[in-house]
């Protein structure tokens, strides 16, 4: 099921202060043909770590189901131990339609999830009009999700950034584990209380952003860990220069098992949010500076 309503155009601003981004609604008309101006404009960062069993399906869907919008798919492997790089190389060598779009980068060591995203952003800023992030573990229908992001970006007065939300009206999470769903809902409220920013999904990492917009952000100074996107989203929603669209996302548990400590993630994120709030509210630092100051090692 597509995440974007197919027949309604409704770009409605939410109330915002002078220091916040302008947020528009997620109801955008899906047309049969991609606008010509969007063809070949999107480069996609796909971080991988031990997702060999499902990465072929993800890449085939992205190449075959996105109606020509993709310029490049940059797969960044984070020192997988299950042969994921070899699988991607095989696809590039043996399937011409994959080889025409996919480029593989291998991190010599595990740089962390955020480290891979930062490397991808470094590679792509300035080379495409738009940069997207898509996961490699099949937690959503990758092609449909990319098309929902592109549809929103192509709307009249198109936004600078489109984020796919698991928790706005129209999102589907019935195949997403209850503990993770509840943890995300809690951190949505916690982030809102500490930041004053209204985000329907403070931790989402599925996004599409104008390259020129990304180039203005200090993304290289953010955490290299799993909390990269919560930090980046604080910067996105706080900047009044940004127009942000949210589209509903159909999200499920990953089809491959990757070692992950929900408690460890939650504790680290809590510490980072509290540190951010200290720098933003007590020390009165600008939001971007406060976010950077909350990253480990700063």
Topology at a glance:
Blueprint: E1 22-24, E2 42-48, H1 55-64, E3 70-77, H2 84-94, H3 96-99, E4 102-106, H4 113-124, E5 130-133, H5 142-153, E6 161-165, E7 172-175, H6 178-195, E8 207-210, H7 211-214, H8 228-238, E9 243-248, E10 250-252, H9 262-282, H10 287-293
Parallel strand pairs: 1-9, 2-3, 2-5, 3-4, 6-9, 7-10
Antiparallel strand pairs: 5-8, 6-8
Helix pairs in contact: 6-9, 8-10, 9-10
Structure description:
This protein is of the alpha/beta class and 298 residues long. It has one domain: Spore Coat Polysaccharide Biosynthesis Protein SpsA, Chain A (Alpha-Beta Complex). 37% of the residues lie in helices and 16% in strands. The protein contains 10 helices and 10 strands. It has helices at 55-64, 84-94, 96-99, 113-124, 142-153, 178-195, 211-214, 228-238, 262-282, 287-293; strands at 22-24, 42-48, 70-77, 102-106, 130-133, 161-165, 172-175, 207-210, 243-248, 250-252. The strands form 2 sheets. Strands 1-9-6-8-5-2-3-4 form an 8-stranded mixed sheet, sandwiched between helices. Strands 7-10 form a two-stranded parallel ribbon. Helix 8 runs antiparallel to helix 10 (287-293). The longest helix has 21 residues, at 262-282. Residues 1-18 have low confidence and may be disordered.
